[in-house]
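ok so for the tutorial part 2 we go from a plain amino acid sequence to predicted structure tokens. step 1 is just haveing the sequence, like this:
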Amino acid sequence: MTPLRIVVLGGGIAGLMAASAAKRIRVDSEVAIFDEEPLTYKRPALTSIIGGGVKGPEEILMFPPSYLSSLGIKMQNSVRVTEINAKDNLVKYCDSRGSTKSVSYDRLILATGGYAPKPMLEGADKLGVFTLRTFQDALNISKWARRANSATIVGAGFAGLLAAEALVKRGLKVNLIARSRLLRGSLEADLARSVQSNLQRYGVKVFTGTSIEEIGGNNRVKGVETSAGKVYSNLLLFAMGVKPRIELAEAAGVAIEETGIAVNARMQTSIEEIYAAGDCISVTDTITKRKTYLPIGSLAAAEGEIAGSNSADEIIESEGFLRAQDEEIFHLQIVSIGCTVENAVEANLRVEALDATLPSSRRLGKFEEPQVKLVVDAEDNLIGAQMVADKRDLYANSYALRLLNFVKERRSLLEVLENLKMPTEPFPSTLS
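step 2 — the prediction. this is what the tokens look like for a chain of 432 residues:
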């Protein structure tokens, strides 16, 4: 086989997995990664930087600096890609010194990720107003938190809740503003209320059904005017989800869908030599069969593996992706797998959510019973599961893994309930 030149744009988990897969399959090929970030790090560690749990960059590196070079993969950090010329198979970029350069490719993999949006509000550019998506974002928030005594977080998804925990650890008074309720896309309402009660026990002031109308202060933020009144703080963080970074792909003529870059089952775009993976793409949900946006690290890794393999001519096809999230926040383990009632109804599925009880006789310690919700379709098959449990409860981890497999296999409700009665062994890690 003729050696290939494979270029990967983006050094997150999708890009790294893509590059590694391509190099493993085509050892003789030249594989290079171009990334805007100064280092290759674990994105979930960003809130640990804010919370003070990270002492230095080396603690959050995805791989040691020597690892990629030992594989024969060339990594270029602090690089800004300016253009993809799909006609001539060229990528133009500015290096860390500001010099304009170009590199040719036989295959190109887009792993450009996503960005954290700010609302179109006057004052969103004031000092003390942040989003959290990059290493530098985390450093900036951490530095500002030293002089702040209170923070307001807008957004009540997992990212907003993790940021709230980090800022509470820093000693700030934290307000959390949700347009509707907590974790609306991940938990049924009663489980979300349990999470909210737990946040309030740790001093977080929660505003649900609340929208922001104005950002207060002159040059520096002094709080926000909301539909529930004024909320004072000197740090404002917008954690309103993630949107795909599609600009380079779109300008190159790659087809774009409503939820990201369009790819087929091989992660191949509308241009034959260009593949895409991670938080920039639109994917097929295995349950609803609809195209959707799932910016989740474990899925990005799987997508990167598929994209890298196919770029190196080893054919692998995806049947779609299953959303599975598992986070530890304020001493709770929060698990959400597959469909909630709300997103199932949006996909025109007839479903209901049922409570389930886990056996407690073998559980370590005296913890509150985990709350478990099973989402079943019209044929009584499991298409979603949720759990809120004490994070110290290692048996809960085992049940989370069991629930994940049940949803993947679309087990019947009767099978699931019978299986959940069976004892399990403690398992010390979460789904992620």
